[in-house]
Amino acid sequence: MSHTELAKQPRRSLPISQVVAGAVKGLAPHQLARNPVMAVVAIGTVVCFGLTPIAFAQGENGGFALAIALLLLATVLFATGAESLAESRGKAHAGALRKTKGELKAAKLNADGTTSNVTADSLRKGDRVKVVAGELIPADGDIIKGAASINESAVTGESAPVLREAGTDNSGVSAGTKVLSDHLIIEVSANPGESLLDRMIALVEGANRQKTPSELALSVLLAMLTLVFLIVVVTLVPMAAFVGVETSTVMLVALLVCLIPTTIGGLLPAIGIAGMERAMRANLVAKSGKAVEIAGSIDTLLLDKTGTITLGDRRATEFAPCQQVPRQRVRDVAFLASLDDPTPEGRSIVALATEQGVDVQLSEEADGATFEAFSAETRLSGVDLTNGKKLRKGAPNAIAEWVKAQGGDLPSDYEQVIARISRDGATPIAVAEGKQILGVVALSDVIKSGIAEKFAELRAMGIKTVMITGDNPITASAIAATAGVDDYIAEATPERKLALIREEQASGRLVAMVGDGTNDAPALAQADLGLAMNSGTQAAREAANMVDLDSDPGKLISAVEIGKQLLVTRGALTTFSLANDVAKYFVILPALFAASFPALGVLDVMNLHSPTTAVLAAVLFNALIIPALIPFALRGVSVKAASATELLRRNLLIYGLGGLLLPFPAIKLLDMLIALFI
Amino acid sequence: MHDMIAIYAIVALLGVPLGIYIARALSTQPSRIDTLFRVIETPIYRLAGVNSQSVMTWQVYALAILKLHVGLILLAWLVFMCQGLLPLNPDGIPGMKWDTALHTAVSFATNTNQQHYSGQAQLSHLSQTFAIVTLQFLTPATGLAVLVAIARTLLVARPVGTLTGVGNYYHDLTRTVVRVMLPLAAVVALLLTSQGVPSSYQAAHQIEMLDSQVEEVQSIPLGPVASMVAIKQLGTNGGGWYGPNSSVPLENPTPLANVIETASLTIIPFALLIAIALISGRRRLMMGIGAVMLTFSLISTSVVVSSERMPNAALAELSQPGANLEGKELRFGTDLSALWGSWTTQTSNGSVNAMHDSFNPMGGMMVLMDMFVNVTFGGVGVGLIGFFLYLMLAAFVGSLMVGRAPELFGKPLETREMRWISLAILAQPLVILGLSALTVAIPGAAGTSNPGFHGLSQVLYEYTSAFANNGSGFEGLGDDTTWWNLACVIALMVGRFLPMLVPLAVAGWLAAKRTAPAGRGTLPMDSPAFMGLTAGVIVIVNLLGFLPALVLGPIAEAVTQGF
């Protein structure tokens, strides 16, 4: 489950100057105050800088104080830089999507029916604009009149045109997409600065970024740990004095900074922003950071069959004859009846017949035939050949009626054949010539390749999948079994979806669902994670807390992964940060006291060069670990299909045990390097 | 070695049936023993004028605890100050001074039994039996009551909305005292009496000495000692009748008495693992917790035992090399003294049969660490409650590591819960280190009998013992001063009520939240990996915070003495 496949747009190179400028801006006191851990490091930096001239004046080791001060400054800059980097990446992506918008012109409809040319920026919610073929849509909105094919590649990166139509579940349009045909009247759905993309950009912008619930709770925990170590270090002064040791303030600041959780404290904002950015890269627009976070805790996924589990259209997979009719005859008649049928189903029948060796010459029989298109009334289609034969295919009961109307009888095994095909999860299409029913074509849903594996992964992660379909229960159960979902709802209505969500929530589960229609809106709002298709109606997009620009219902699975990654990254780096402390104690405590009590040198298990190099090495390690872990923070820790038990064991081993052991050799190495220069 | 293994085995063997009994005794389901105990319980409820049936929210439950304890503290304070005027004072002991009396009242009302006085010389029979022993029964019972309230609120999975409160404090408290503490203490008291522990209301015996050069007449104070020793051991109290506690032959006369008293240290904390497993139905979880506790216990005991088997550095040139017998009873030897020393600090008991002050530095540091951790079995009820506090912290980090928003038993842990959990954890370094630093910084406040490292250890030990509600002391500290008494009162109160009531509050808050059903995707709280994480959290939070202080105290002492 990698996200590389989701990254449709190439990663843009980032202007380094922008990142550096952001890092420096992050040093502003009001910015630092948002992050208690880094605020303490910043205060330590100021203290050490202040002590430097005093130390020089008193003939003490002023160089050491200066070095510590510089290292602490670097620590803070690495942290603000990580945040700035994540922010730039997020903004670069969102900004590219928005770029065209400012330059857009709009033909605003006035009350008297005339239009006036305005800039897109001046459009307000509720305004109506007219867009004709070849123009760009000036603002996010809903089509209220007309239908058109639209190129949405500016938003989704997908260049195949899509159909959007007023009054359907596909009436939503996005700013910057291009109308290819016809003309549309669009009602603008957001004021400038309030569109989906604007909101998404706000989520990654440091200054106004809201902390998510679990980020807030984690901040409390980190603040507590910072306070604990602050108490430890402050109380050390009188206790050391009691046993006759004078402590160096610079050393104490170094000890404090090494002990407080600077690694996770420094990377926490970047982790959150990177989570948003990963969502955005997958073309998922979250309305809040909370939405991305909650996706990780989802217990039940309600998935639409069409588009998620199966490819959009059904395909013919079998010609099943009734009674003694030869199989070829069913094939041939179905072939002729479908030749002029433009629907995907019709074309798939022609394709299957060709595959099974239909005589191509046969198509000449249909020359000059009149095509009877499918209509909702008759529920059948076909051709009237020039030789007078009437060939029809369609829903089994519609064909049965059509045959009876001409005085024909139903074959005795008709019901059986239909039942068998339904049981296999296929849709039966009956084929008739005149008053005789010849057989049935099986139209099967084509299950997306790899989807069964995906569900197996989700099951391994403890997530329950429920397939939602309008199909009858027999077909639904067959598809559910093949695709490997845990449960299904056949003949689903929006009301049943809503009821199911409430039921799952009542048993304590968090539920995610996908929807696009206006009647999906209540369920989308009720679900803990509601993912609306960008092509969906305004109501659906309003009710959801995430919108997929690609309008791909399967994205729900990606959303869950991104959410889990976000949470795992926070947990893993917290563990790593805390486990690091053990090694740092073995460096700084002997350095602090060994001069007064040489016997305490036994604690110096790494046999470091000198107290000065030891402390410098520890503080340097503490600073460097932040940029070293930025890739983890931005990419996210892998959550490959694994149960919670496996994930816990793996992450404890890597980040817990690894965090415990890594600093020992790393600090030893840095100590040896520093010793070369001092 | 065999004797120590035997005592561990005795606790395990007797703890299981006791745990089963406690689970039954405190169950709200009707049972056969009800009819027997109702005869005692019903009049108590009527006399106290409390409704034992109403269901309390956690706030009401906590308030009931605080009200009762404030009342008890005031009453005991008054009794100690006025004991000279009150009956049951055959030896004519005068009233205590106000600050010692306050410290003593708070110390016993917090299940600590830290003594800044010497029992037999400064307390009348009335003070000992009425004030002290009453508190020695009520405080462990309160810990147990709160534990059961937390267990049935937090551990028992119930649909949201079906649980209206955490239980009824008076019901839980009365049942624990009447059904668990009193019968068990009676059995142990009888066993100890059979071994020769005094059980009498007589005044002190005046004995004429054979060697009249030393002292003409020795006064041997008596009293209902056996009953007090029984509950002091069982209830993780620790305050003995006599100043030297169970090292004195009158409190601990025979090898068998020593076995009984040692086993009594851990029997209830161990049995509670079984009881909570039965009450909550979470057997694997409690087994995991038991495994972590046992691991900590074995590590601590091994360190203390091997430390005390080493010679005392101070006597290096003066005596034959051998185990460190300074401050120990020869009749127990180093092993049984070390076992007691490690158990009494693992369980927040604080009674002693040897002087911890005279332990070798590594042994002294280990018992100090036991008190920092304080959840290696821990006090009656509060040991497990304290463990749950760390479990909550581990669940927070663990949930994140499995990719879920933080949860505890499927219930979301949010900012409000984390704020209070953090406060409860922060309180320990704040109080212990803060007060220690203040004490050594204020000239003349410390009153230590040793300079340097050992003096610092003494100060650190005193506050740690107070915060951990342990009560044992590094002797030699001049601690009966107004400073020490008042500073310790703060440590005692915060150390008792914050770590006990915060988990209760969290349980109460979580009860109102949704419960995600446990599955493959949820944090496996009963897995070895999670228990490893919890153990790691306990070690890191406790030991890392106190390591610098330990380095200046016992560690410096140890390395400067060459161990």
State the separation between the terminal residues of chain A, measured CA to CA. 49 Å
Give the fraction of residues assigned to helices of chain A.
40-55%
Which strand order spans the largest sheet of chain A, edge to edge or round the barrel? 10-22-21-20-11-18-19
| Biggest contact | A-B, 77 and 70 residues
- Radius of gyration of chain B (Å): 23 Å
Reading the helices and strands of chain B in chain order gives HHHHHHHEEHHHHHHEEHHHH
- Protein structure class of chain B: mainly alpha
| Outline type of chain A | elongated
Output mean pLDDT of chain B.
Answer: 90
Average residue pLDDT of chain A: 85
SSE-based structural type of chain A = alpha+beta
Protein name (chain B): Potassium-transporting ATPase potassium-binding subunit
InterPro entries (chain B): KdpA
Transmembrane segments (chain B): 6-23, 60-80, 130-155, 176-193, 256-278, 285-305, 371-402, 423-446, 483-512, 533-556
Organism (chain B): Vreelandella nigrificans
